[in-house]
Every structure is written in C-alpha cells, then in structure tokens.
Amino acid sequence: MNHKKYRADTVIDFPQRTWPSKRLTSAPIWCSVDLRDGNQSLVTPMTLEQKLEFFAFLVKIGFKEIEVGFPFASESEFLFVRTLIEKNLIPDDVAIQVLTQSREEVIRRTFDSLEGAKKATVHLYNATSPLFRETVFGNTKEETVKLAVFGAELFAKLADGRGEFTFEYSPECFSQTEPDFAIEVCNAVISAWEGYKTIINLPFTVESLTPNAHADLIEYTCGKLKNRDKITVSLHAHNDRGTGVAATELCLLAGADRVEGTLFGNGERTGNADLITLAMNLYSQGIDPGLDFSDINEAIAIYEKMTHLLVSPRHPYAGELVFTAFSGSHQDAIRKGMAARADDFWEVPYLPIDPADVGRGYEPIIRVNSQSGSSSAAYILETSYGVILPKLLQRDFGPVVTAFSDRNAVEISSKEIYELFTKTYVNLETTYKFISKQDFVQDDESCSLACKIQHEGNVTEIRGQGHGVIEAFCQAFTAAYGVSFEITHYSQHSLDVGEGAKARAITYAGILLEGQMFFGAGISRSTTNSALKAVVSAINNSCAKV
C-alpha cells in the first residue's frame, strides 16, 4: 500500500475557534434527501408509487423539508414533483425541495415542475473546488463565480410572483475549495438573492477532513458570510471517512443551523450523514430531536422495502443487536441496572437509551451463547418464566448452559434455556422418583411424614420424623436407602404470580453429599410436594455425578 501517493488536505489555521466549548441544546432544521440523493444511489431506483409512500412516511415522522428530486434529470423525476403538487399531497407546513445545476434549460425546467406549489425550496449548485474547476470544467475562478450568479439571478427572475420560494445554494465540494474563494462565491449568490429566504448549504461532497477540521471551516465561513443573521447555514455531509455523523455534530456546534441527510445514511459511495443516528444522539442527551422514531421497526421496514438495502444489525439505535448483550459481565450489569432503575432518569449500564422508546421490548436485551456468564441464563429464566435462581444455583447452571452452546455452536433461545433448566434440575427421575405424600402430621415440636418413592422399579413407602418436613424426609430416605446427605441450601417462591390458590410453588434444594454440592428443583401446586421433589432431584443429580 503506497501511502506516499496521497497528500493531506489543507486545513485552515483558525485559533479563534469557539465551537469546542459549546454544547448542542436543540435540534437543527432537518431536511431529508432520501428521495433525491438517496434514490439516485440505488441499484434499482424507486418507482413513483414507492416514492409517494416514502414521502408520506417522512412527513409522518416529522420532516418539514424534503428534497424530492432533480426534475430535469428524467421524466420520472419531473412526474413525481408534479404528482405531489397536483394531488395535493404536500401538507401546508412541509416544503418540498428540488435540485438544479446552474444551466438555463435545467433551471427553467425545474421551475416548471413547481408550478402550483404553495411553497418550495429551489436548490442551486455548481462545483467550486480546484479539481473540478481545472480538471472537469476548465473554468477559472471568475467563470465559476459568474456561473453561480447567473443561476441565482435567473432564480429571482423565474420565482417572481409564483409562490413562496426559498432559495438554496451549494458550492459543490465546499470542503475541498479554498475557504476564501468558497466564501466569495456564496456572498455573490447571497447578494443576488436579496429579499429572498436563503439557505447556504456547505457540503462535504467528499469527506476528506477530520471532523474538527470541518468544524473549523464552518465556523470560519459563518463568520464571513453576508447577512449571516438572515440566512440559514446548512450541512450536507458524506461519509467517505466514516465520520459523517461526528463531522455534522461538530459543525452544528460551529454555527450551522440545518442538516441534510438520509435515513440510515443511504447515499452515494459510503453514504450521507445518518439522520436517525443524529436525531437519536440528541434524544439520548435529553434534547427533543423533532423527529419521531418511537417505532424504529417501521422505519426499518420502509427503508428496506424502498431501497432493497439492509440495516446493519449493529446500526446505532436501530440494529437488531444494539440492545443485546452476549458478554456475561455486560449481562450482569444490565440485569442489575434494570432492577435498580429509578423513574426519574434512564441510567442502565451499556444501554444509552431505553429500548422501549424506539418500540423495542426488554426480552431480547440479554441473549445467551457460549460467551455468556451465569447471570445471563438466570435473567432469561426470571424475566420469561418467573424462575428466580439462588446465587449458588446460578453458578451451577451457568456451565451447563455454556457446554450446551459450545456443543451446538449456536445462540440459545429462551425456550431452550428453560428446557435445559428443567431437564437438569426438575424433571430428574433417573434413580429415584417421588410418587406421592401419604401421611403428614406437623405440630409445634415435630413432624412425621410418610411418602412413596420409586427406586429401580420398586415403589416403597418410607417414613421418618424430624423438626420439619425436610428433616423428616431426609431421615426417612437415609433409613430406607442408606444415602446420607445434608441440606445446605433451601428456598421457595411462587411461580405463578396472581394465580392465588392455583399458583405453583418452585423449591430449590442444595445437598452436600460426600463433600460435593448438588442441586435440584421441584414444581408443584403443593408447597410440600414441591420441596420433596427438589430434594429427590438433588439426590438424582448426585447419583449421576458421584
């Protein structure tokens, strides 16, 4: 890789910068360019019907400015603009935007497409960078300024009396243009548009600078534009360096007012600035973004349907896996954070926003594979099935889950985790089987118990006494089968909250046998039967492992 054939872009020396000490406190003006910049980058451009559906969705989620096409480029582009206007599909508070080069026939056709529009933004551009001036067009600086002013003056002439128009100008490849020359061109256009609402769009047509250098360039330019207090400064970042979102955020700190971009960053080459990420970044800082992504799945469905592109599973805020943790330490932190969360502010480890705010549920937050810790399976059992494992049982069950995942080389579903738990600790009838409780007498001093146990095909009634039912059962079992053990862990809770007398109980028992710990669990509508089943399951586990 011959890095010496590249040279770094020139950056301005601007020690007067103020943007590093600022913070974003409000949303910018948003303009979606999905239907123009986004559409032109698709392998299969959208049909008229798809464009209309996409436009309706953009309006629904809150866009007030939407660039809808390049009417001169094709009959389909022209038809789309006309359809929106003639079928009255543009809400009164929404402005459509159309793009044109600074060529007379292109500009006239563009204005023709807007006949009858209540309000619209007409977007003029011409390339200003040395590479385009000298290599592509063979223009001098003077000719470049003249071309921009020609288009601007024709705009003013054609717009007179035809509706509420805003004019927008882009010095294409702004970030690769000499800063003072870019300012000269912009100021010439601003002078030609006196009396009109004006947007000066400063595009990073090819993202070549680091985000901080972009911000310096924007703050420097904003300080030298004519009538700065009367014009809107807009951004249009591409993502060639993968920092389109970062550059846009810093440039808003540097004085820009408006952002053009696309949903999920679709666009030429590496794409445009991602408006969903930008909006949700603001949201995560307690700032109203002015766009509604409370149903992120709908946004994904519309985008994938219209573009035939897929949203990455790691896309910020929208990806399938972004509210998911596989690492055991992450899972444990999330579980504890969710349990401890107060109502005032969202503060959960590893989750910058509440998944519910974008229409996601909590169930998939923690998923389990061979990389997961013991607490992850415990979280799934608790949230999905109401099974609250004691700490020691969590540690015992964790390696069981990991071994299962390793053997099968897959992520384990919630259902599989529950089935693995019941197979390992509940439904154990390998050596001994609890059949029924026969007699049970309990007073303040003692308990007597009789129950039936099946062992090697034979059903035996065993009897014992103790201070409680568990002690009585242990005495009876040891006397009948010669198996001596000690109950070291015991807990019980209701498995069906709200079911009253119909609720099942689940009991967890840990026994110490020959110096080793073994666990079992039992489930029954009878709390006593649940406890006895748990002890028998623990004994069966000891038989399998000793």
What attributes characterize this protein structure?
alpha/beta, 8-stranded parallel β-barrel, 546 residues, 39% helix, 14 strands, 20% strand, 3-stranded antiparallel sheet
Summarize the structure.
With 546 residues, the chain is of the alpha/beta class. It has helices at 34-40, 48-60, 75-86, 104-113, 130-137, 141-159, 179-192, 211-222, 244-253, 275-283, 296-307, 328-340, 374-385, 391-408, 414-426, 469-481, 527-545; strands spanning 29-32, 65-69, 95-101, 119-127, 164-172, 197-204, 231-237, 258-261, 432-442, 447-455, 458-466, 486-494, 505-513, 516-524.
Structural write-up:
- This protein is α/β, with parallel strands linked by helices and 546 residues long.
- The chain is built from 17 helices and 14 strands.
- The protein has helices at residues 34-40, 48-60, 75-86, 104-113, 130-137, 141-159, 179-192, 211-222, 244-253, 275-283, 296-307, 328-340, 374-385, 391-408, 414-426, 469-481, 527-545; strands at residues 29-32, 65-69, 95-101, 119-127, 164-172, 197-204, 231-237, 258-261, 432-442, 447-455, 458-466, 486-494, 505-513, 516-524.
- The protein has an eight-stranded parallel beta barrel, surrounded by eight helices. A three-stranded antiparallel β-sheet has the order 9-10-11.
- Strand 10 and strand 11 (458-466) form a beta hairpin.
- It is elongated, with a radius of gyration of 34 Å.
